[in-house]
Amino acid sequence: MNRVETLALLDACGFVYEVTEHPAVYTMLEAAQYPMPYPEADAKNLFLKDDRAHFYMLTVQGDRHVDLKRFRKAQGLRNLRFASEDDMAQVLQLHPGAVTPLGLLNDAEHCVILYLDDALGDTIGVHPNDNTATVWMRTEDLITMLQAHGTRVIRVPIPETERKE
User: Fold this and answer.
1) What residue spans define the domains of the chain?
2) CATH level 3 topology of 3-156
3) Helix segments in the chain, DSSP class H
4) Residues 58-75 pLDDT 10s
5) Residue 125: beta bridge partners?
6) What pLDDT band is residue 32 in, cutting at 50, 70 and 90?
7) How far is Cα 95 from Cα 142, in angstroms, rounded to an integer?
């Protein structure tokens, strides 16, 4: 699904959402340069893979720094690393900077497990399969839509790295 198709699906589902247009952003640091209506709801997404080619997406608040080692151990997963650009293109049909839970709508084989951080609030901001906009929607609507698509969604606390003062 591209951006137009993604927004059409949100409309077809009857979900209430807002779209904020902005220049293409590839990192949370770049995104922070543009005014956002709900900065506390802006989500960061990590597309990961283990050594057996199982895929995972972690979605956390944009300012969080994920401790992958602690996360992996808490969830009983194998060692994790960032998936390649080729994996991203093949599985999600996305490019770096555009990774989003809405990209899981392109996961025809439902091979990616989505881990949503418990710290995310009622509203979430994610790209609509294009990194030139952010869609603000209810977190529960996102979960409902992805589960209806066949995506396994797990809400858990995702640990942050210990910050050194």
Assistant:
1) 3-156
2) YbaK protein (3.90.960)
3) 3-12, 28-31, 68-75, 85-87, 139-149
4) 999 988 999 999 999 999
5) 42, 136
6) confident
7) 21
